[in-house]
Amino acid sequence: MAASETGGNTDGGSQITDPIQFEVVRSALTQVAEEMAAALRRSAYSTNVKTRQDFSCAFFDRNGRPISQAFTQPVHLGSFVELIPTSIKTYGVENLDPGDMLVVNNPFGGGSHLNDVTVFGPVHHNGELVGYVASLAHHVDVGGGAPASIGPFQEIFQEGIIIPPVKLVKKGEMNEDVFKLILAQIRSKRVTTGDFRAQVAANTVGARRLVDLVEKYGVADFDHYVAAVVDYTDRRTRAEIANIPDGVYGTTGFLDYDGFSDKVVNLKVEITVKGETVFFDFDGCDPQRRAPVNSTKAMTFSACAYALRALMAPDMPVNEGFYRHIKMNAKPGTVVHAVHPAPVVGGWETQVRINDMLFKAFAPGMPTKIAASTKAMMAQAGFGIIDSENGEYHCNYEALAGGYGARATSDGPDAVQQHGQNTENAPVEEVESHFPMRVSRLSLIEDSEGPGKFRGGLGMRRDYHFPNDPATFTVLSDRDLVGPQGIFGGMAGRKAYYILNPGSPTEEQSELTSKCVVELKPGDTVSFQTPGGGGYGPPEEREPAAVLKDVVGGKISRQRARDLYGVVIDEETNVVDESATTKARTELTSSRNSN
Amino acid sequence: MTTSAVDPIKFEVIRNALTQAAEEMAIALRRSAYSTNVKTRQDFSCAFFDKDLRSVAQAFTQPVHLGSFVRHVPIAVKRYGPENLGPGDMILSNDPYGGGVHLNDISLIGPVYYGDRLVGYTACLAHHVDVGGGAPASVGAFREVFQEGIIIPPIKFVNKGVLDDDLFRLVLSQIRSKRETSGDFRAQIASNRTGALRIIEIIDRYGIDEFEHYIDEIIEYTDRRTRVEVAKLPKGVFTAEGFVDNDGFTDEVVKLAVKITIDDDGVRFDTTGSDPQRRAPVNSTFAQTYSACAYALRALMDRDLPVNDGFYRYVHVEAPEGTVTNCVHPAPVVGGWETHVRLNDLIFEALSPAMPDAVCAGTKSMQCHAGFGGENHETGEYYCFLETLAGGYGGRSTSDGPDAVQSHGQNTENAPIEETESNYPVRITRYELVPDSEGPGEFRGGLGLRRDYMFPEEATFTILADRDKFGPRGLFDGEHGGKSVYAVIKDGNEEHLSSKTTVQLQPGEIISYRTSGGGGYGSPFKRDPQAIFEDVSQGKISHDRARERYGVEIDPETNQINEKATKELRSGC
Asked: At what angle do helices A297-310 and A74-91 cross, to 10 degrees?
């Protein structure tokens, strides 16, 4: 985290804080970030940024401390906390001029995986530094070993362009040579050029709004309220942590497959809550591998930040006053704190599995607040096709939804993103009009839920069909061994499947692994099937009416309703047969007890 | 043309001074570089171009690079825009689809000014030992250029004499061998500066007008002489077909075809009929193909002919786009020099019937890369190493092919074992000629060599080579040279590897290269028995082979030629 330097924000001192002014400024600061997000979204070219909204925007004070954020991607926002101050320090604040913007993605300097490229710049008012505005976009391709820059890579050098902090914009003008050099590594040049300019535009908008704010309130008041927002958040965070029962919450978990060997990736975490402090200890996680399973420190931090924030009051702001309370031990050289030259493209997979584990660890202490296991992976699908007419290299990237874990009082939603991943669906209409491919199927997967009193959400199936052109397709995902676990008697969801040419005669159909790159020929189809969420509570306690609704809705089969939930539904009348159900449930309970 | 007088002595002085400027660039580069590949193997080139981007003078460096400069330098400068350059600027470029070759070969080009007047450009190219990408040393069986390393369009690397820090850092971030490579980049800057200083000194002495006038003269002189040389060549249409043995992914050969037309209009090379490009390390860029043809033409000419625009303008190359001799984006290009040099062998083969005394039989005609890297456990640094291994040269009409040398436009030096072992965590456990690997002939091909690398720490090793299916061809009844073998040795067990592969090595494992022998020239049964005797005495050819392939019997006990037996053996044929 950024060190406080002289001349930085004070703690307010003896200045009076008007509560209404406080709220207005606090919301205005958030609004700066939100307008940045709107500008980015409206000027970006790629589906991944403009539609899936795989980007984030935030404002930092003159010491590089996070002050406000747009409602974007928590995974990114948490990683900013290390990236921004580290980058400023590396470049040297004395080397930055008004109108400059730095571009950076260095995973070992506070970044995440290479696709996540941050553009940020200082904001000046009357020549004085006010703070920094930052936007991060997941660029659909950054070069490297496969289109969309995802794949089972073994070293960082294979993954795409590595950008230390360098000036993308100099005194308001694009630094053409730097821009040209970055773009030269990238397949999707047209689209990515547009996305970079959108980031510059977003920062420009953010800077303007900030300057307006400072103009309105004056620097002294502005600084005062920024400090007050941080202090307020600090007080509330401490109170929220104090609300979590003291104790040590631990659990283990694993990633199913590393792309190369059959050794699972072992993960372990122990969270110690004491009074107003919380400490995340990752001792016992596997050493890093030459495989797409390594998280950077910033990515791991963002998992802890997300988990803690999710347990707190919804209206709490997120800024330095919150982030400073996240203390973490993640040993360098492990899969939760990879060091150079580890590959990092798979880091988000590990990060989100950790998130799941953090909730699982907390579950015994707060059973009503925690959901069962989710897909707990990004579930990334990328492809590249060269347009045979104009030679343009199209790249597409998306992360697919899956079943969410069931909760104490409700089912897990079907086909959603989870935890810090907040990206949107890429509509079939849009991708089909941009790329020479067809989404030949997009559906929920029947019977994929983790059965429970409250069931897990269904997984999702998306089939990518390439009728006319050869293509390169990448799966970067997980869950090919076991589905998401249930809790408190709930059962596991269906695991993930990745199938080439499903339904073809056996010679042509094949099961893919969760971490592979395949060369497709015209006519091939890849079926990406995400897992269902884990169940909560024993399935034989589920309301029969709810099971009936699932069966009538085509989500659960009649057979499964009987076998796993003990609910018998008459085939003709579609009505629950109460007595048969009672009988079936008695059998289920007794066979469960005897096992 | 010119109307003012040309003093023949001044002409020679200036011509040599310009060459010497390029030679001093080479010396500066060599003396300041860090990597073995540049400072010792001398895998770099330097040249001077006039203000109109015509090639004027070259250092005695790598013909493969120098020929490609003729394409790359003008394209890079025009892309950047000469109007955007000023004194003290230098542009960096390696873009294969902007006149470049493979990504490791990075050119630094600096305009030279006399006062504020542009007088020319110095250019130096260095083969950087790593440029990022899919494997250490950036060589490997890649599918697309995006996997191969950093692609550099022309950018202003040095701005008014000052290295652009952001660009330098951005380039180095992609590179594994950061310490060595930053040193090599700085050496390139020093090289261009040295060249500029020497050019300015020449102009100080003679004045700009004379300087430019004599450059025109040098080019015209070279043009006149080249025209005479071309006229001496036999007229006709000469063709040859050949192939690269495999592509690293499939076992399919990569077909190459060349047609050389020599008539009153000059010499034209045409590679139509060569295979379409592949997603595999077998594609040459146009610049690489052009440099093969330039080298071949030059090799057929008078020894003391200068090489500059006056010569290069006679090299006409037709290479269809989308083939392995003129690949298009985003084809991988790392294997381009392999294909390029195989083309050279074919050109000489095509011309052999008409010019039997001017050509040699098949050579290794591959670069034969050995690239490796890993974390040096002692220093913590990520090191990379690259070298290309020598092989047997083809026999000629009056002499054997030398053993273990580079071929054609490839002019790099040996990496001494002492240096390699002291700088990198590797041990060379064997370095020797391979007996019986030559192509038998009246004049035999040269022997291949064996080099074994033992790694005491984990390492990633890439073989990017060829000749594992077929040995180099003989000429005029000369026979094929031995093919290459690439192997990994684990606990004493040898396993053959592909000629285009990357492997992860565990401590103690060994990679062994046995490179191909050159093709023979003329029937082996005509070889002078005394020559065979010497070969056998030196352990280059075995007794059995001498008997079976050459019909020469050497008595192992007396160590003398058994004349009677030899006569018998040879009369039978």
From this structure: 140
Across the range B131-160, mean pLDDT stands at 97
**Which secondary-structure segment (H or E) carries A235?**
helix A219-243
Output the DSSP codes for A387-455. -TTT--EEEEEEE--BPPPP-SSSPPPSSB--TT--PPP--HHHHHHHSS-EEEEEEE-TT-S--SSBP
Could you tell me which of A80, A84, A64, A82 has the C-alpha nearest to residue A72? A80
The model's pLDDT over B273-289, given as tens digits with 9 standing for 90+, comes to 999 999 999 999 999 99
- Which stretches of chain A score pLDDT less than 50? 1-14
Distance, in Å, from the CA atom of B7 to the CA atom of B27, rounded to the nearest integer, reads 30
**pLDDT score of B2 more than 70:** no
How close does chain B come to A155, measured CA to CA in Å?
Answer: 8
pLDDT score for A507? 57
Q: Report CA B327 to chain centroid distance, whole Å.
A: 19
Nearest to A503 by CA among A529, A484, A477: A529
Q: What is the pLDDT of residue A1?
A: 36
Check CB contact of B167 with chain A, cutoff 8 Å: yes
Residue B40's pLDDT is 95
Query: In what helix (H) or strand (E) does residue B47 lie, and over which residues does it extend?
Result: strand B44-50
Locate A79 and state its tokens. Answer: 């990683």
Please give the C-alpha separations between residue B110 and each of B77, B127, B287, in angstroms, as whole numbers. Answer: 9, 18, 20
Q: Are B505 and B461 in contact (CB under 8 A)?
A: yes
- The verdict on a CB contact (< 8 Å) between B174 and A181 is no
Q: Are A399 and A380 in contact (CB under 8 A)?
A: yes
Beta bridge partners of A382: A397, A474
Q: Identify the pLDDT of residue A505.
A: 76
* pLDDT > 70 in chain B, percent: 99
**CB atoms near residue A390 (< 10 Å):** 6
Quickly count: other Cβ atoms within 10 Å of residue A23's Cβ.
Answer: 12
Q: Which of B146, B164, B328 has the CB atom closest to A185's CB atom?
A: B146
What is the 8-class DSSP label of residue A188?
-
Instruction: Find the length of chain B.
Output: 573
Pairing of strands A515-520, A510-511: unpaired
Q: Which residues of B touch A181 (CB under 8 A)?
A: 152-153, 155, 167, 170-171
What one-character DSSP code corresponds to residue B275?
P
CB contact under 8 A, B170 and A143: no
Q: Model-level pTM? A: 0.94
The burial class, CB within 10 Å (0-12 / 13-18 / 19+), for A429 is exposed
B560: Cβ–Cβ under 8 A, 6 or more apart, which residues? B554
Partners of residue B328 in chain A, C-beta under 8 Å: 391
Interface test with B, best of A177, A178, A260 (most B CBs within 10 A): A177
CA-nearest of A374, A369, A331, A339 to A353 is A374
Query: What's the burial of B2, exposed, middle or buried (CB within 10 Å: 0-12/13-18/19+)?
Result: exposed
Give me the pLDDT at residue A390, please: 84
